[in-house]
Amino acid sequence: MENEAGALSRVAGLFSARGYNIESLSVAPTEDPTLSRMTLVTTGSDEVIEQVTKQLNKLIEVVKVIDLIDGNHIERELMLVKIKAVGADRDEIKRLVDIFRGSIIDVTDRSYTIELTGTSSKLDAFLDNIESSAVLETVRTGASGIGRGDWVLRV
Amino acid sequence: MSVELTGAEITIRCLQEEGVECIFGYPGGAVLFIYDELFKQDKVRHILVRHEQAAVHAADGYSRSSNKIGVALVTSGPGVTNAVTGIATAYMDSIPLVIISGQVPTNAIGLDAFQEVDTVGITRPCVKHNFLVSDINELAVTMKKAFYIASTGRPGPVLVDIPKDVTQQKAVFDYPDKLSMRSYNPVVKGNAKQIKKAADLILSAKRPVVYTGGGVILSDAAKLLTELTKMLNYPCTNTLMGLGGFPATDKQFIGMLGMHGTYEANMAMQYCDVLIAVGARFDDRVIGNPKHFSNENRKIIHIDIDPSSISKRVKVDIPIVGNVPDVLKELIRLLKNVEGGPDQNALREWWNQIDLWRARDCLKYDRASSIIKPQMVVEKLYEVTKGDAFITSDVGQHQMWAAQFYKFDKPRRWINSGGLGTMGFGMPAAMGVQLANPKAKVACVTGEASIQMCIQELSTCKQYKLPLKIVNLNNRYMGMVRQWQEFFHGNRYSESYMDALPDFIKLAESYGHVGMKIEQPEDIESALKEAFKLKDRLVFLDFITDQTENVFPMVPGGKGLSEMILV
Lengths: 155, 567
Fold this sequence. Notes:
Number of strands of chain B: 20
Strand order of the largest sheet of chain B: 3-2-4-5-7-6
Distance between the termini of chain A: 9 Å
Oligomer: heterodimer
Largest sheet of chain A: 5 strands, antiparallel
Mean pLDDT of chain A: 95
Low-confidence stretches of chain B: none
Number of strands of chain A: 7
């Protein structure tokens, strides 16, 4: 979409006005600074997704809409999570972070701050392995997606 | 070195470049520089309304009756919030408008300044697009975009919000001839393969119906639509927004369809085997319960410029996204070159069935009544104006009777708020119609509840000597609310009675207009004739009508098209 003030609120407003669901939304400028790329995760029946796509296309500032699910694609989400880490748990958590290929990016004598990247379900799986009372704070970016292979989204 | 103009001058110059002859507005602090420039020129005429809602409705009526872009000019804050009802009305009916609003100076935005509102935020859900112009160098190109977006693709209102300091700053005026926007490229031509498929399906029909909406009117496709329908001898029904798209006096016309559509139109719609939908959107007031509608098997061709209108409420078989006239032209060309035509035996049978439905005479009412029947007023209005007037309406029972009983043979003659259902629309819209068509007969069919929602515009009509005929169907009730309360709420007429009505005659006279009160059925015709003889005067005709009359047929909310309540 055009990298213009208000473009994001048009998308968000469309979803709330028409009762569509936003699971996550991530947006930032692209290599062309006049354009922003947004990855939006939503759910709905085929009919609803068709309407979502059509309605998004109608927004004047939206240049192109693709449904990544239609083709092979890769998606990644970044999570920063602060976890209580004392005593024997410290080693256990460190092992878990290694297994999930995350990294500990900040340490105190009571906590770890962990950076983890992957699909949203991988991040969920990581959290499922931590006792919920130990999770002090989580920050997630929402998914970013891109098509697989040589295929490129051009405007 | 080119001459620099102020933002206010540029704004007016843009209007002139677009060929705008007439705008509707109301001044205020944030637009004073624009008004100053208006004052210094005479190419763009400004009509001063009495409330910003009326400015937008008038611009709307101007546009609907002329196919020009309507323009309204309002100030910041309350100027804009008052205009919102008008903007939403135009948005729901896809009317091309450009609304220019003043805004507080850029350095005051966000500081809760006097008469500040987030105009772009407030209007976002009810415009096709809107802009805040924060850089004087962007002003001219933004105005160009506004006119371009408003009038292309599926039309709609576009708002341009201009902060006061931008109207004072200077820039070189350079109005672009052309625009190209990478993010906005409306489709025009329909897909040729789809059109071919549609042509084949049309010819295979045994029980066809042509169902057309506002898109046929807005795209000026009435002639082509009529040509196609006449060529095929298929029955045609129009939506409330589509009346005039096919001549109502033609024998192939089976009336309006929908909640208050005719028995024959709704039955044909329900039981057809091929439905040709043109510039219509299957909305809830048209097809009733979509599940019930889908109970019958039929193939649907849907021609519309807006892809999001297709398969939104009803799944269609052959979607054709494109500009209606272009698609119709191609369809007509294909059908002309085909040998043989539709199955005439099947078609004859289908017409026989439709005639049986017609014989139900669903619009009958008591013509011998000693109390004025509202339907009769509209019928007489049709006769007296020889079907050649522009009719605007407000919203409610009177609107439905006007739609049912005035036979519109031409497009752009029937002007009402179909989508939003805005009471208060009728009179200001009629002002716009009259200004776009100075010599035409213009009548506003209204009720005593609706008319009071923009009654202040009697003053505007006085100022500009607009000779409207206000046909007030006065039943002392909010008639449609009363009807629903009678049918669905056990006759409990909660707050629907219009107590303490003004003396409309004296009210009209106080503005310098002519008022007439009509209480006997035998006086309807003579009163209307007299009113239209007063060519240069606004006449307020207050018809005292039957309080208990209801609009029939009626498809109750949530019911199917064939489940009408009949008189």
